[in-house]
Amino acid sequence: MPPDLESRRHRLANALPLGDAILVVGSGQPVPLPENSDQTYPFFSHAEYAYLTDDDGIDGVITYDPRDDEWLSFVPAVTEGERVWEGTTQRSGLPLAEFSPWLAARSGRPIANLGALRPEIPADVTLISHIRNGFRHASRSKDAEEITVLRAAAAATAAGYAAIPALLRPGITERALQIELETGFFRAGATRTGYNTIVGTGPNSAILHFSPTARAAQTGEFVLIDAGAAIGRYTADVTRTYVVGTPSPFQRDLYQVVLAAEERAIARCVPGAEWTDIHLACAVDLVAGLVAMNVMRGHPESLVEAEAHTLFFPHGLGHMVGLGVRDASGLLPGRIKNPRPCLRTLRMDLPLAPGYVVTIEPGLYFIPPLLQDPARREKHRDVVNWSLVDQHLHLGGVRIEDNIHVTADGPENLTAAIPKTL
Ligand code: GLY
Ligand code: MN
User: Which of 82, 185, 204, 362 would bridge with 88, disulfide CB 3.0–4.6 Å?
Assistant: First the structure.
């Protein structure tokens, strides 16, 4: 289903606080590899441009002038070289050569240059930031076409994950798991992965963004996989954690704590709920589980107040996902970053609204660089069972992540088809 660009642009034009400023949104240029060959990094048009045009081509510009109430799309002429080497065809739009005269006819007006910066436009960083905040906010609620493609990305992601349980035997490498997972994505319609696939076995499962290696999983180890199939520019972002063979009672308890906290956090994803509150409530649930496991001591709320949860849950609860793996995360316009140290890592601070799609991804990890840090040990000396922690220092970690569509009728888990039983 192609996006309804006309209504998307109309909504943006009404929502952006442009005043008399003109809007110029650039798609960007490919970045050459450092060795100066004719190769470039994979090109993705700037997400703001892609949102307005559904176009992934280079060097395009889309403009909006509030005086004319008119959107115009300028695209470069396809070259013979592009036709010969890449089979590129001419994109529809006005010739890019007409952009300069269009801009010159508006000289003296403020220009909000979103997307990729145009070299001929002096960057007005204050205006850009103001308009970008408005853009981000206006694009937060996913429209019907975006939800449709996200469902397809979630289905392709589920197909990849379906291959994993049968492969979880001692000796399987992280790399082999990545290959089978991504093969499943592509067979089910993915056009790429939405970000670099994370696979960590054993202690590597506690490294938050671990790149798969030739390390082989051993019996009794955790295996953490965080990956998403993308279709076009839209991606899912899913994490599952497994154990090779039979989990130990401690592993099972840790897993159940994370799973229960994740399910409770998902249930809290309703319109009007503050993201920071959902994050902190989840931190309390995780800490309560650690207290029940005798890993921590004290009242869960007080432990979270003292930031002790960050020893085992050092990241935010999630982020918005869709047009890219971070999509329109960030702050509600008018808010400033919460100064509380344990909230600095949160990727957003806003109330949820219908149409938002967020990840919910709590985790509990044994991360040696955090747990062996003398300052942290001293600060939290009395609230952590350090000898038990030391016994499990190389156990790794558990993260469970789903993609939640916030609706007026309650949370809809787009990735519910991917099993979560240990
Ligand atoms: N999927 C990786 C992340 O959300 O950071
Ligand atoms: Mn994520």
Answer: 82
